[in-house]
Design brief:
Elements lengths: L1 E8 L6 H12 L6 E12 L5 E10 L21 E5 L3 H13 L2 E5 L5 H14 L33 H10 L19 H14 L3 E3 L4 E7 L2 E6 L4 E4 L1 E4 L6 H10 L4 E2 L2 E10 H8 L16 E6 L2 E12 L2 E4 L9 E4 L8 E10 L1 H7 L10 H17 L4 E5 H6 L15 E3 L2 H4 L2 H17 L9 E6 L6 E2 L15 E3 L1 H4 L5 H22 L1
Parallel strand pairs: 4-5, 4-10, 5-6, 10-22, 18-19
Antiparallel strand pairs: 1-3, 2-3, 7-8, 8-9, 11-21, 12-17, 12-20, 13-14, 14-17, 15-16, 18-20
Helix pairs in contact: 2-14, 4-14
The chain binds flavin-adenine dinucleotide (FAD).
The site of flavin-adenine dinucleotide has 43 residues, from helix 2, helix 6, strand 16, helix 13 and helix 14.
Length: 524
């Protein structure tokens, strides 16, 4: 078997004859000796001519192709040992699926509602401006990943086998294209049905889902754990996977109140930048955009200095053809994020443009948070979100044109935006602290060097993008993955500070499930 790469103009389908000829050349043989050809990866390359690059594996006629990835089967766990899973985001549900394979009974406690009921609460956020603190764009079945962009790209290849996550998603309804594409994407219109199929599978095999079950207390008892919920129910198990995501501030508060170890963790904060998608297409395709091409993405990362200290400024969760959404988890906060449908066909391109915020920054520039101890960065994040809400006393996002922000002048008016909760003309350059706003001011003209036309007053900046990752870490033992002093408690996913994004959170959940299966195996 040999692997090779071949490119075809993006306007054309791959030509099998040319592929077989290239395979023969790569293998030093004639076309007649070539057996099966498999496509391994497809990526769009618009650096010069716009082409799709295909990574292929070619086998000789007498060679047996490698086995395809085989996803494990789920066991019937009606009578098996329960494992409590708090949170039904990617970390929670992928740990549950893995526990089914390992023969454990996942019992999922989720503060929010099922995806169907959740849609109505999300609609009410923009229609009525009210945020249900248990059911919103972050909380509810599928967690923050359900009404998201559904990008499945990750760099955390060392965390586990990404194929397990992708093949599970295909098993539950995602297009098999995600197995091939370099930047796979599902979309908010497809994700809810996938979440429902996962739930059906888990419950049919004996697992449990409990919606409207906000865990308000955790306590140790008889070598195991008791979780008490807002609806008065209690649940017990020897092991608990705590997968509550980066927005579960009450969970961090509970740890703090109980004196259980948690730590400050750096995160990133900034704005959402929204451009007309046609402009981003023009820039990224060098003026050669054609309707058959996907709406273009972009990403960048740059070190930017302020008062002698360099910090990363980077694009976050870029959504081509997407929409801006209000993703606060409590009333009185304004938080923006982006999502898109599978077709990615809105006329807008949005991305978080955020600055790394480290504990030293808060210690130096915002010393008033020192009294908050390990919650210092979380309180800073929360206060930034409140200040954005207070500006308009509503979910209308404070907004400013990009060049005006950099020139530190108010905008005369604002362009249209996809943000359906509305915008309020605001001096964002003054509302963000200087260690953030000054770095952003520097970065936008710099991006323009690589992406000519990006720095424009047709682009709108909206505040605030703050839920980039968790500002708190729940420390765990690197070997056992249990909390450093709480046996049987597995902090997992983004909320624990060990992952970022859908796939890496899912992988982290799988790792915790495997640890439980391994540990329990030696104990029994
Ligand atoms: C709008 C938006 C778009 C995004 N787009 C992408 C993208 O395109 N690609 C990508 O990789 N990532 C994206 N992300 C990030 C991604 O969704 C998260 O990284 C991922 O969902 C984290 O998974 P998790 O399981 O660790 O936590 P979460 O998904 O946050 O899930 C945590 C769950 O725990 C529940 N919970 C919290 N507290 C309690 C409690 N006390 N009791 C019971 N349940 C509780 C919550 O309701 C929630 O369902 C996006 C996020 C948002 C908000």
């Amino acid at each position: 078997m040999k692997e090779f790469e071949i490119a075809f103009p993006a306007s054309k389908s791959p030509d099998m004859e040319t592929i077989r000829e290239t395979a023969a050349k790569t293998m030093g043989t004639v076309v007649g000796n070539i057996g099966e050809i498999r496509f391994l990866r497809k990526s769009l390359d618009a650096r010069k001519d716009i082409v799709y690059r295909y990574r292929c594996a070619a086998y000789l006629k007498n060679e047996k192709p490698q086995d395809d990835y085989v996803l494990g089967e789920y066991r019937d766990v009606h009578e098996a040992e329960p494992v409590l899973i708090i949170g039904s985001g990617p970390a929670g549900i992928f740990s549950a699926l893995r526990l089914l394979m390992e023969g454990y009974r996942p019992v999922i406690l989720e503060r929010g509602k099922d995806v169907h009921s959740r849609k109505a609460d999300n609609a009410a956020i923009s229609r009525e401006g009210t945020v249900n603190p248990d059911s919103n764009y972050c909380f509810g079945e599928g967690g923050a990943g359900t009404f998201s962009d559904g990008k499945l790209f990750t760099r955390s290849t060392k965390k586990g086998d990404i194929r397990e996550v992708l093949h599970q998603l295909v098993r539950f309804g995602a297009s098999p294209d995600i197995l091939l594409e370099a930047h796979p994407h599902i979309g908010s219109d497809k994700l809810p049905a996938i979440m429902e199929n996962i739930r059906k599978c888990i419950t049919e095999h004996g697992g449990e889902y409990h919606f409207g079950c906000r865990v308000t207390d955790l306590s140790q008892s008889d070598g195991g754990w008791i979780a008490a919920c807002s609806d008065g129910k209690t649940f017990g198990a020897r092991n608990v996977i705590l997968a509550t995501g980066h927005s579960a501030r009450d969970i961090y508060g509970m740890f703090y109140d109980k004196g259980w170890e948690i730590e400050c963790k750096g995160f990133a904060l900034g704005v959402r930048a929204e451009h007309p998608q046609s402009l981003i297409n023009k820039i990224q395709y060098h003026g050669k955009y054609q309707p058959y091409l996907p709406n273009a993405e972009y990403s960048f990362v740059q070190q930017v200095e302020f008062e002698g200290r360099e910090r990363g400024v980077f694009s976050f969760c870029m959504c081509p053809g997407g929409l801006l959404i209000p993703s606060a988890t409590a009333p009185g906060e304004t938080v923006l994020n982006g999502m898109s449908n599978s077709e990615r066909n809105s006329k807008w391109a949005n991305a978080g443009i955020v600055v790394s915020v480290e504990p030293e920054d808060i210690a130096e520039y915002c010393p008033e948070y020192a009294k908050e101890g390990p919650l210092a960065l979380m309180r800073f994040q929360q206060d930034m979100e409140k200040s954005m809400f207070d500006y308009s006393s509503s979910l209308k996002a404070p907004a400013q044109r990009m060049m005006d922000f950099c020139r530190r002048k108010p905008s005369d008016n604002l362009p249209a935006s996809s943000y359906f909760a509305g915008t309020a003309n605001a001096p964002l350059h003054e509302m963000l602290p200087p260690f953030i706003s000054m770095r952003l001011k520097r970065v936008f003209p710099q991006i323009n060097y690589k992406m000519k036309g990006y720095y424009t007053n047709d682009a709108l900046l909206l505040g605030v993008e703050s839920r980039t990752s968790s500002p708190v870490r729940i420390p765990r033992d690197p070997e056992t993955l249990q909390h450093i002093s709480l046996k049987g408690l597995y902090p997992a996913g983004e909320g624990a500070g060990y992952s970022g994004g859908i796939v890496s959170s899912a992988l982290d959940g799988i790792r915790c499930a495997m640890k439980i299966a391994g540990t329990a195996g030696t104990l029994q």
